[in-house]
Write a structure and sequence with these properties.
single chain; 234 residues; mainly alpha
Length: 234
Amino acid sequence: MKRFYKVAAPGEAAGACGIAVLLDGRPVRTPERRILAVPGRQLAEAIAGEWAAQGDEIDTASMPLMRLAASALDRVVPRRGDIVEQLARYAETDLVCYRAPAPADLVERQTATWQPLVDWVLRRFDAPLVMTNDVSPVTQPGDALAGLRAAVEAHDDFELAALGLAIQACGSLVIGLALSHGEVDPVAAADASQLDEAYQAAFWGDDSDAIVRRAGLRADIGSAAYFLELHRAN
């Protein structure tokens, strides 16, 4: 799509709930035609900055903050209960609960990286997760699942959009929650979520498609963390 505006800036818009993102004074609309408005000015300024940075052609893939805000408005707000349930279900088969029986150096690496996160969710959310080194699914305790579901539900709509992106990119509710609560930074979250794959790549070699895919996931994790930081700064 060709760029059709000169100035992008945060501002007020009739019918907007929060600070809108304006293009030449007109509000940006989400794919579902809602006014793109967010609660805080710092996030609105950053999203406007994404629009301002566009060249002659608009590339929405280069605007992760805008896409997360639109996701919050279009997906989370009307279907909040469903989104909470979808994300909470990651706890039933969380990556950090499935440990390799061998080799020893991989076992040590998983324990050193993942066990502190398992211990953290126990302390923070009273969620005692069960570990296994079997490929068969393990049944997690009901109180652990309830505690982690409550942790997901405690996020507001905009936080939930970012948390969802982080959980999907990490393949782990535990790592996503740790990122959201500042227990890990985006680099540590990505490293933890890609531990097994990185180990295998170091041993067997890597391919360009896998490298690109992992880089994309790292970018998503970083975008989720930055969105949360901006949203909570106000």
